[in-house]
Every structure is written in structure tokens, then in C-alpha cells.
């Protein structure tokens, strides 16, 4: 009999038994199992060594090794049984469900976007669909096709963000009128919300970027009365049924006649004031000609409203910069 082999087995048993006694809890127990009974554990090593035991001693050594295996397994099983529930992950409530929880902070849609959605909803109910266009525009769509001649002051480099001589950040959403009419024939009823850019000095009422909603309606027999009714309906749906509207004569190169849309705002002290919301008018024949529409057959109206103005009026916001500062204390209110 290989004495060293049997000695080692005995030592292993006593070491393993000590370790097992010290192993408290399921994690330590599992570590013990891996160390002694696992696929790369001590028992496996013993079995490997068994192969090298001289033939005449193999039977006795094998028996001893087998006993070792049974002893370790039995000791392990016993410990697991003794540990009982304590070996399992702690029973009972892991969390106290009666404690007040931490509310997750959930973001929401910005008030500008909310308002654009609302505007699109209101006009949607009047049969308008949404069309969008690029923010980087060319001279043709921003000016030329809108009957704004090369000499017009609106083209001044100080009034626009030019990228090259022929491309720019659009200064108005009227560009989308042209883009829609280029590709479609009347009847057309579209609304185009989006960002526009002008190098204005930022103050309480100006920003270098703001939002407009453009509207366009082209068909046979469209009149100024349709325009007035449409915008009046919109104002009443957005601000409330008591808000009056009026048209003030104005000028835009792409409409004739043109008007400014005002609403009558009521203040808490009982006073009222007319406030400008945007421009509008009957589409100029030159604009129809730019998109090859038959000016004898079709008439149309167009309008452009400032979204920030609509938001600031409705929620009584005194400074446009609040809308772009990204301060959640402000934004949470909407
Ligand atoms: N594009 C004009 C602006 O930015 C607003 C406007 C006026 C749009 C009259 C229109 C319109 O469609 O008919 O000031």
C-alpha cells in the first residue's frame, strides 16, 4: 500500500472537514463544493493520482479513494441539510414595500412641440395635412419663387444666415408652400411647422431661431372669407371661444391682398389689447406662376404664424429665452 497516498487522503479529509465546518451560508458552501467535489476539485486530483499507483496496490488505494469520495459527499449533503432554509437566499420580504418609493423622473414633450402638435391637430380637423421641408434652403425656395425680387431688403445678408450665396438657413416656413406646390396639383390643404433662423439680437421677444407654422390652401374658388374663417376658427380652438380676431391690411410679396392677423387679448384687470399673431393673404399670382399653376383656374390663401408667440400668449410667458434655456424647473410646468 502506498503510504504517502493514504496519508494524503487522510489529510485531505481533515482539511475538508475543517473547511466545511467553517463554511457558513450558501455561498461559502458552494465554494467548498467546487473546491473539493467540483470537476477540477481535490477529489478529481486524487482520482488522477490513482492511475499512477502501482498495480498491486491499486485495489486498496481505489477503495480508500472511494471512501474519501463518499465521506466528502455525505459531509456535504449533511451540511446542506443542516443549513436548511438558511442556505437559501434570505426568505421574507427583501424590500419594505410600505416605504415611500423614489419617483422616477420622467421627461415629457417640450411645450413648443406640444403646441405644434396641438396646432396640427386643430388644422387637421379642418382637413389640413402636415408637410415639412428642409431647414437648409436655397434662394429659389426662400425668396425667388415667393416673389421676393433680388433687390428686396428681406434678402439682406444682415437679415439672413447665408451659407453660400445660393444657400441659407431658411428665414421662413413659406418655403414649404413652394416645395409642396412643385410636386402636387390642387386641391392642396397643408400646414407646415418648423424652425426658422434670423440673425436677430436675442432679447425677451427675439431669438436667432424660432418656430413658425405655415398654412396653404389652394383650390378653385378659395376666397379671403375662407381665410378669415379658417384663422378665426383656429384662434377660438386654441385660445378659447371668447377671443376675437381681426385682419389688418399689410404687405407680403407672396400674397395679394395681404393682412396681419391680430387677436384681442383680455387681461386680468379687465383691459384688452390687440396682439399680432402672424401674416396671411391670398397667394400672389406670381407665386402660382413659379410653380406652373393655372392662375385663371386656382386661387388660394396662405398664412404664417409664430409658434413662440402662440405659446407665450397662452401661458403668459414674459421672455422667449425661457423657452430655450432648458431649465427643468420652468419646463416641468407644462
Ligand atoms: N413668411 C412670413 C414671415 O415670416 C409670414 C407669412 C405672411 C406667411 C403671409 C404667409 C403669408 O404664408 O401669406 O413673416
Sum up the structure in keywords.
11 helices, alpha+beta, BirA Bifunctional Protein, domain 2, 334 residues, binds 3,4-dihydroxyphenylalanine, seven-stranded mixed sheet, two-stranded antiparallel ribbon, cytoplasm, single chain, EC 6.1.1.20
Distance between the termini: 88 Å
Quote the CATH topology of the largest domain.
Answer: BirA Bifunctional Protein, domain 2
Task: Give the overall form.
Answer: elongated
Report the sheet-strand fraction. 15-25%
Main sheet makeup:
7 strands, mixed
DSSP helix fraction: 25-40%
C-alpha Rg, in Å?
41 Å
Parts with pLDDT < 50 across at least 5 consecutive residues: none
What is the average of the pLDDT values? 92
Can you tell me the number of structural domains? Answer: 2
Structural class: alpha+beta
The CATH architecture assignment of the largest domain turns out to be 2-Layer Sandwich
Q: What is the CATH homologous superfamily assignment of the largest domain?
A: Bira Bifunctional Protein, Domain 2
Number of strands: 9
Q: Total helix count?
A: 11
Order of helices and strands: HHHHHEEHEHEEHEEEHEHH
Strands of the widest sheet, in order across it, are 1-4-5-9-8-7-6
Write down the CATH class of the largest domain: Alpha Beta
Bound ions, cofactors and other small molecules, one mention each: 3,4-dihydroxyphenylalanine
Keywords: Aminoacyl-tRNA synthetase, ATP-binding, Cytoplasm, Ligase, Magnesium, Metal-binding, Nucleotide-binding, Protein biosynthesis
Family: Belongs to the class-II aminoacyl-tRNA synthetase family. Phe-tRNA synthetase alpha subunit type 1 subfamily.
Enzyme class: ligase
Protein name: Phenylalanine--tRNA ligase alpha subunit
Amino acid at each position: 500500500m502506498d503510504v504517502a497516498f493514504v496519508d494524503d487522503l487522510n489529510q485531505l479529509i481533515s482539511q475538508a472537514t475543517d473547511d466545511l465546518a467553517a463554511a457558513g451560508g450558501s455561498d461559502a458552501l458552494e465554494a467548498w463544493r467546487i473546491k473539493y467535489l467540483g470537476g477540477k476539485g481535490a477529489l478529481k486530483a486524487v482520482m488522477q493520482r490513482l492511475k499512477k499507483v502501482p498495480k498491486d496496490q491499486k485495489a486498496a488505494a481505489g477503495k480508500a479513494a472511494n471512501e474519501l469520495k463518499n465521506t466528502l459527499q455525505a459531509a456535504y449533503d449533511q451540511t446542506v441539510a443542516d443549513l436548511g432554509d438558511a442556505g437559501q437566499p434570505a426568505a421574507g420580504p427583501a424590500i419594505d414595500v410600505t416605504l415611500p418609493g423614489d419617483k422616477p423622473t420622467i421627461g415629457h414633450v417640450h411645450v413648443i412641440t406640444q403646441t405644434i402638435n396641438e396646432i396640427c391637430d386643430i388644422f387637421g380637423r379642418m382637413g389640413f395635412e402636415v408637410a415639412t421641408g428642409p431647414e437648409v434652403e436655397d434662394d429659389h425656395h426662400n425668396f425667388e419663387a415667393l416673389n421676393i425680387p433680388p433687390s428686396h431688403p428681406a434678402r439682406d445678408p444682415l437679415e439672413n444666415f447665408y451659407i453660400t450665396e445660393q444657400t441659407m438657413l431658411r428665414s421662413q416656413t413659406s418655403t414649404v408652400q413652394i416645395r409642396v406646390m412643385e410636386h402636387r396639383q390642387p386641391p392642396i390643404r397643408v400646414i407646415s411647422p418648423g424652425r426658422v433662423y434670423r440673425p436677430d439680437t436675442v432679447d425677451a421677444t427675439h431669438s436667432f431661431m424660432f418656430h413658425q407654422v405655415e398654412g396653404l390652401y389652394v383650390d378653385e374658388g378659395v376666397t379671403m372669407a375662407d381665410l378669415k374663417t379658417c384663422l378665426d376658427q383656429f384662434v377660438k380652438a386654441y385660445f378659447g371661444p371668447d377671443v376675437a380676431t381681426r385682419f389688418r391690411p399689410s404687405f407680403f410679396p407672396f400674397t395679394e391682398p395681404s393682412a396681419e392677423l391680430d387677436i384681442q387679448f383680455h387681461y386680468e384687470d379687465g383691459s384688452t389689447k390687440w396682439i399680432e399673431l402672424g401674416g396671411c393673404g391670398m397667394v400672389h399670382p406670381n407665386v402660382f406662376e413659379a410653380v406652373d399653376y393655372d392662375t385663371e383656374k386656382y386661387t388660394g390663401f396662405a398664412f404664417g404664424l409664430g409658434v413662440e408667440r402662440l405659446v407665450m400668449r397662452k401661458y403668459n410667458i414674459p421672455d422667449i429665452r425661457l423657452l430655450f434655456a432648458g431649465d427643468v424647473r420652468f419646463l416641468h410646468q407644462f
